[in-house]
Model the fold of this input.
Amino acid sequence: MSVTKEQVLKALSNVQEPELHKDLVTLNMIKNVAVCEGHVKVNIELTTPACPMKDQIKGDVEREVNKIDGVNEVEIEWSANVRQTPQSRMFLPGVKNAIAVGAGKGGVGKSTISVLTALGLQREGAKVGLMDADVYGPSIPKMLGLEAEKPSVRDEKILPLEAHGIRVMSMGFMVEPEKAVVWRGPMVHGVVQQFLSQVDWGELDYLIIDLPPGTGDVPLTLAQSIPMTGALIVCTPQDVALLDAVKALRMYQQLNVHILGIVENMSYFRAPDTGHEYDLFGRGGAKKAAERLDIPFIGEVPINIDIRVSGDKGTPVENFEKTDEATREAIMSFVRNLAAQVSIKNSQQQAPLELKIT
Ligand SMILES: Nc1ncnc2c1ncn2[C@@H]1O[C@H](COP(=O)(O)OP(=O)(O)OP(=O)(O)O)[C@@H](O)[C@H]1O
Ligand SMILES: [Mg+2]
Done:
């Protein structure tokens, strides 16, 4: 007896999406099933191209479909459709998810983590924008090698610059570098509002927003202006940084901004010659804090000379191509975990779509 599509769908309904905790059929992730004698082809649509669970899903699908009598080959074709945070379209047309990258303390690596996140997601195939909302000390233009650039204006909209495959907007494009910008609260509010309403971001899966340190006017304005998907908290392992990170986290919670998780930057140092890992600042503090606060731990990024040098030179791609494999893996692991948290957040608010099988 030949294998039927119904049998395959039934088998697929036994496969759980490991993080969304529902089966692939219910989640409308199965876009097509084709059967040709013993050969089964399944099209699976992920909720992010940066899905950390792809290998597990692949293994589970192969196992379940292979249980059907008569199946001798399972082929999977992947696609991705990033889900949108509800209401986002009303405020930022085209932007599916706005993610704030914040911290309590200065210098812990918010801008670095913002750049790595944006580029990591782009390299996985997502459409990404990066908004430098650090109006006091914008560092994104330098980190991306865009210091001499100026955005253009079309139809009264500011067009973000394009760099390394991501769209970028920064106060640093508007004011001369090294000229200290002194802003009062209402002016900060105006500038952030302008960035949100007058920049033509186009279609984006993720807009990463790099924040200034602390719990001041910028996060407040953002939280009041747009329905963000959530905030990523960056900290280093030292107690003082953790203490400030918790303060920032509480502020977001008070502003009703969802916490996507916490990432530990400069977590450890890996000696390039021996591979030995040194816990310079007491690695693991952020993970413990995440457990205590019951928020997701997104990952840890080592202190690495390539990360610092590429930030100074404006060559962020090197972090994904030149730096050592262990560091690259650590970066991609946190990027994928963050993407998964975005999918989880969105799936909690959305009813499954209608199932269509052709
Ligand atoms: N994992 C890392 N390894 C090596 N250097 C790092 C790492 N993370 C950040 N740095 C370096 O530390 C410095 C501060 O980082 P960054 O500017 O990203 O911090 P920040 O939190 O955005 O600072 P600010 O509060 O001023 O906005 C930069 O020189 C950056 O290159
Ligand atoms: Mg910064």
Notes: DSSP finds twelve helices and 14 strands in the chain.
